[in-house]
Amino acid sequence: LPNMPTRWASAFDGPTASALCLEAEQTDPALAYAVLAARDALANIDDRAAVVLIVATSAGAADSHDLYDQARKACAPLEADALVGGAFTSFAKVVARSVGLGGPCLTVSTACASGGHAVGLAVDLIRSGDARQVLVVGSDSVHPSLFAGFQSVGALAPTPCCPFGQTFGMSLGEGAGALLLQADPAEPLGYVLGWGGSCDAYHATAPDPRGAGMMRGLHAALADAGVLPEQVGAYNAHGTGTEANDAAEAHAVRAVLGDGVPTSATKSQLGHTQGAAGVLEAIVTLAGLAAQAVPPSLRSDPPRRMAPSDPVSGGRARGWVYDVAMSHSAAFGGTNVALVLGASGPRPAVDRGPDPRIFARGVGVAGPVLAVGQTLDHQSPRQSAAQVGASIRRADPVTAVLTEAMARALADASYRTREPHDRIGLVVGMADGPQQSIRRFVDSRDERGLDRASGAAFARMVFNAPAGAASAHLQVRGVNLTLWCGHGAGTHALLAGARLLRQHPELDAVIAAAADEDGHITKDRVSIGSLPAAPIEAAAAVVLSREPGDVELIGSAWGPTHEWERVVATATGSRVPDRAIVTAELGLSPTPPAGRLFRLDPAIGHAPAASGTLATAAAVDWIRAGCAESVLVVSIAAESGAVALLWGRS
Description:
- The chain is of the alpha/beta class.
- Helices cover 34% and strands 20% of the residues.
- It is globular.
- The relative contact order is 0.12.
């Protein structure tokens, strides 16, 4: 990598990486690492038909995406296989097929916090009874774009990283980790006792220097686990080695856990493995608990100013007697996630009471789409909401429409915008994401060289950047998730948001949203004929709450694509809805039973991620207006499965 200030990374050499790709029968390193880790985790599992897969990744199949992009720049004939191979949304399905999983899939991409969020979502799936076995796989590869991007924002260290030590900066890493979470394992390696998240709502790349957002995430995780701060025997830090992150995290740890807790930085040994970091660091933390030892923070002696009081220096693991540990991750966009892990169990469960009822308290739509209440009936035009871009500094289109839809939903739910909302979470569904920023970064890298790539575009191209920018603009500071599910991502966001509300009483509300941008990837999908209708640039958001309202989520289900009939039957039970809105990928055209059936794509155009939230916005307005007592919303996708939501008058 010429002209780069550092060549340090924890990476496989070329021959080893090629051998691993061959062993995994994959051409992309990140996919190969994911498949091999998944195989190891499933080695003793024969029946894989119902195992759910959650993949955590920051850059996805980056090498495959480069091949696709090179072909389009060379004006070579664009084939569907090239686009799909480089598409972020196909990552999870490739892994599932490679290891023989039959359950539905999800991909979580919250940059460097992806792995921790994936583990948290798996815990909630099992607690809710929606799954009994969930495989969590975190994977990313070291790619030239990562070097270029992190160099452009001044984050790389000139030497191997020294979390809490004298040299500032991070070192990249690559690889994969996999954890199989089960409802009742025979011989568990350890326990995930709880998790919690937050959003700084402060800056696109820098953490809140006071550590306030991290503190909220740590407190939420402890409350979820039913663990007191003094019961935590060790802490595995995000510990990137950068000056801003390490100082903010040290402040947060002191404030929440006190001065004495031993604090390890796994990245001093593995490098920063991006989306895989949260999973790998959870594995290291569980291994430390099992061995009754605390891993060291290499190169942390002498400590820098604002280092934790005990960074486990000296270069060797320390024998330690403890039963509970925490592992923490943070990311661009200000998102934070913490896991509470235990060596023994089962522990007394936190009493959350009966599952609360979930209501849609507010809806908002943005972009050149049809009016919410008239979306499918009268087709009256709605004014574009692109003007929100003027109030968000250099917002790309997907961020602009997402923020506007969220603002309208909050207002509809009687929340004031631009005031701190610590108890409101956010789940955003994405398909092809911030395409304009991706295009600008890749072009700057190719035209100027790796050492002069655009830092501004890099900060905005991470897949959870729109959610982070919208949260900062609207001060939504609860747990912050981005699901990268492609078609139907908004429906997945609604289902995940409802599950969060049921499992996490510290949240008063969750905004479930999705947004689509009509960019270069969308245009390529049109050129190869893979979209069922003309694309639209739009977003929709729904405020979910336990506070009673006019419209209630009275049924929901999720399952594999081929089991869509069972999914619909589970969601509806004995009820026959007055209306149903169905969105399906090209080639999938089932017709669920309903009194009156609408298809979203022919009516308004194709919004792959936002279709489910747009449909739900219409359903809420119909029920509010007395046009229907109940409305079924169904999304069916080849990669992420089938989701059915039944909304009814409360």
